[in-house]
Design a protein that fits this description.
This protein is α/β, with parallel strands linked by helices. The chain is 34% helix and 16% strand. The chain is built from ten helices and twelve strands. The strands form two sheets. The chain has a seven-stranded parallel β-sheet, sandwiched between helices. It is globular, with a radius of gyration of 21 Å.
Length: 371
Amino acid sequence: MKGQSIFRVEIGKPCEIALSSSAFLRYYFALLPWNYFHSGTDFYFCRYRRQCLGRILRRSVATLPGVCICPIVAITQDRIVLERLLMSSTNGYTPPNEMPPAPIHQVLVGQNALVTGSSKGLGQAMAIGFARAGADVLVNYSTDLAGAEETVRIIEGIGRRATMFKANVSHEDEVQAMFQHMFDTFGRLDICVPNAAIQLNARVDEMTLHQWQEVINVNLTGMFLCARESIRAFKRQGIDRSISYACGKLIFISSVHDIIPWEGHANYAAAKGGLMLFMKSLAQEVAHLRIRVNSISPGAIRTPMNVEKLTTPEQFQSTLLNLIPSKRIGEPEDVSRLAVWLASDESDYVQGTTVYVDGGMTLYPGFIGAG
C-alpha cells in the first residue's frame, strides 16, 4: 500500500505521519471523516508490523498483543504530529493504558515555561503539556541531545516556540546561563519546573560518597539553584495580570519517596524528603509576593525504568499493581495535566502543597484486606 512507506515509528519516540492522499485516510481509518481526528485522539500501532490500526476503543486495544498507543499532539493540513509511542518492555509486554482521555485547554497563553530534564520522560510530557496549553518552553537537557530535539520538534509542531539549553542543574554557572538564555529568548519567565533527577542506587553500607553526593547535588541542590534563579526573576518582573494573577509559578517534581522509605535508595529518598520541606519553607517565604510554590510527587509512571523488566501480565500484577490500589500504571500525561493546572490561574489558591499522582500508592496498600 502507498501508505506503508509513510510510517517510521519507534517505540518511545515521537514521529509524524504525512497525509499524502485521501486514499491513505480511507485505507487506515475506514472512511472516518477527517474532522473526527483532533489533538488528544489516540492512534494505535502494531509494534511488529509497524501498521497503524486506527483509532479503536482503549479497552479493546488493551487486549491486543504488541500494540502501542500514540497520542496526537497537533494536526495540520498535511500531517499529524504524534507524541511518543507508549513505552513497552523489550520482551514485548505493554501494560494497558487506562488513563481517560481529556483535552488540555489553552490556559497558559502568553506565558513562558522552563522545564529541566525535559528531553524524555515526565519532563518531556510536561513541556509538551505546557505547549498544548499555549506556553512557549525552554527545553533543558544534560546529555540527551536527541531527546531534547524531539521535544522541541513536537512543541513547534503544536505551534508554540521552543528553545533548547544544555545544563547540569547541579552546576551554579550552568543554571545561571540557562536562565539568561531563557530571558534572552523569551523575555520573561512565568513557570519553572525543576524536574531533573538521577538515581545511583546502593545499600548504605555499600554506597560511595560519590553516589551519595551526586544524587544530593542533582536532586536537591539542583532544585535550590533553579528555585533561587526563578524567585529572582519573578521578583524583578512583578505581576502582569494580562498573563496571570500570580507573579510566578514554581512546581517541583518530587516522588512518593518523599514519604515512602525506599530500601537501597537512601540517597534518593533523602533528597526527595529534603525537597518537601524546602518547598514548604520557600512557599511560606514568598507567598505574600503572589509567587506560588508547589510540588508534584508521582508514583509508578510508564517510564523505561518501570516497564523495561515487565514480560507478562502476571509480572505486571505482582511487580507494580499490587502496590497501586487504583490498579493501573500512571501515564506521563497524568503528571503533565496536573502540572498545567498548577501553572494556571485555576489553582491560584493552592500554595505550599504536594500533590501525589500515584494511584493510591501512599495509602499503605499492604493493609488492604488485612483488617
